[in-house]
């Protein structure tokens, strides 16, 4: 029996939320669901209409692991059929919520309560009872003119899913948080820019390994009730940028808040001493001149970089949110049908003394081999061809929806209770024939 070295890292399952093109209600619902998920801030919104070219572009741009229709429609069903390999291997029907034996709903993926419990154990357990952190649960009136923007910007814990856990109580108790209510028509204070809110919690413990070229933190200038603006704003943040929304219809209510946000960006050290950072101003292409006029009164030390964007996403490749890779030794077994790599799963992230039953929740383990000498004529580093994901999964993991292809390796959707990952290195002969077939070329071994 041979052994091989593998690097294993973890990340949340990246879900592409299919929303009806033009439906602000779907975006609000998406924001609420993502507030419940670890990595929720990095899940893109995918508008689906009669023309699916934009949706297909976003699915590939964000390299999503599966698709979830927020409000099922004929268009979303057709898209799911076209990308059938982007389905959940563990829960039938691509469900995020499923009924437990208690008749209440549980969440199929790692939720944000893991973060609340983790920070309570590591930071807040021994603080005095009167101590309050900067974590704040933001509330507002549903008839506020900015209610849709607040939902997308701050996040909220929806109470319509009959959940097993009380997320609000976990947030306030575990993080020693406070509740802050925005009164109708009142202005956002500069102090709010220093607070951390529920949606920001979802991206914690996912360090950014690199900053994509041309990506800067900044502001988004747009209409607070526009579907296109809210979608573009959400997807720009999902790409890894820290951005706040500057609504053109309510400048007075948010000017101080935006000024405080810009002041914080001003105080950040430059990424490179030779290339000073800039503050990005994102907007839709058709609103470029208006955005240029509105930010003229905003004073900053750093220069503004105007980044007009298309309908739903800035022109950049989102960063990959993963934990630090761990090195493990896997056993390589050779049998009659080929090789099998048995890879131990290192300690999973956000482990704590929780009494919740969450072992069935899913996350992604990214596996990258260091060499392939232990299984000659085979590989665990197939070409990055997302269209061949189902083929890779059937050959390497047997099950057709378990694996996702990544650059330099593969990713397995696993449950928290799994301790090993069994992979079958792919025959180079089968891989070459399949690649030729994908290109429309008939080939055979001479």
List keywords for this structure.
446 residues, 4-stranded parallel sheet, alpha/beta, 7-stranded antiparallel sheet
Overview of the structural elements:
The chain is about 25% helix and about 25% strand. The chain has twelve helices and 20 strands. The protein has helices spanning about 25-35, 55-60, 75-80, 115-125, 145-155, 165-175, 200, 225-240, 250-265, 290-295, 390-395, 430-440, and strands at about 1-10, 15-20, 45-50, 65-70, 95-100, 105, 135-140, 180, 220, 245, 280-285, 305-310, 325-335, 340-345, 360-370, 380, 405, 410-415, 420-425, 425. Helix 1 (about 25-35) runs parallel beside helix 5 (about 145-155) and helix 4 packs parallel to helix 6. The mean pLDDT is about 90.
Please summarize what this structure is:
The protein is an alpha/beta fold. It is built from twelve helices and 20 strands. A seven-stranded antiparallel sheet has the order 17-18-15-1-13-14-19. A four-stranded parallel sheet has the order 10-9-11-12, sandwiched between helices. The protein has a three-stranded parallel sheet with strand order 3-2-4, sandwiched between helices.
Mean pLDDT: 91
Terminal-residue CA separation: 33 Å
- What structural class do you assign from the helix and strand content? alpha/beta
The geometry reads as globular
Task: Count up the helices.
Answer: 12
Strand content: 15-25%
Would you identify the regions where 5 or more consecutive residues have pLDDT less than 50? none
* Helix percent band: 25-40%
Count of extended strands: 20
